[in-house]
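Record 1 of the preview.
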Amino acid sequence: MPPLKAISMSVNRLVVLFVFVGVLLSCNNDDGDEIPAPEPPRPLGEVLAEDEAKIQEYLKTHYYNYAEFQNPPENFDYKIKLQEIPEGNTDTIPLIDQIQSIDITVPSQHYLIAGDVENVTHKLYYLSAREGVGETLTVADSAFVRYEGSLLTGEIFDQNNIDNPVWFDLPILQAPATSLTSGTAARGFSEGIRNFKSGGPAVINDDGTYTLDDYGVGVIIFPSGLGYYNLARTTISSYSPLIFKIDLFAMNQTDHDSDGKISIEEDTNGDGYLFNDDADGDGLPDYLDADSN
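->
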């Protein structure tokens, strides 16, 4: 497989980006549009049934450029293109025959839904177009990524510049509305990206830039219960399933509370969710609490 077109940035910028950054995945709001106040959340199971029907329809009627990934042409950019299958076309393989899924349980209190706690299992769908040659990260790590977020309609609501990947601290993206943030920031992004591998070692070029090759490339699709749920954004209506194209360049293990124990090891119940581990009952998750090592 020929290497991907070089992605170049200054080494100094790379060093700066390695500094711990608590970034919430969010939509651009530069257009000045007023974000509507959140409506009272609907029952989690009811919304999931609607979202799942929409996602299934999308998976049956869309495909990605798999032929190019299998036999990459010269100078192929290894970018995923999602397209609708033309009517009457029976030769193209739909996403539903290529995609994989994992189950993630979401408690209703994560969205401040009134009444008894409802634990609803959501399916997160992911497709690995290129596996990558590096390490697989966990939900407790930091990920150096290029991404594009869109709705099922194809409308893009967020993306970063092709030459400017960013670091995401994945545990922050898991935070429920009742926890450290005012609302979850696409938990599905954190859970989905851990199904990919990072690229090879950075190669320093003569001009001080670096190149990363053979990184993981994929897509994640998830229901609104793993996204923004009833919290609308300027370009995202409430209860919207989301799609993310992912290029995973690098990963970094983290020790958020600097207690000498990497954060994933403080997921003591082993469920891949860091906000329900609180050994000393002080309301602070163990991965952020040096006293609960």
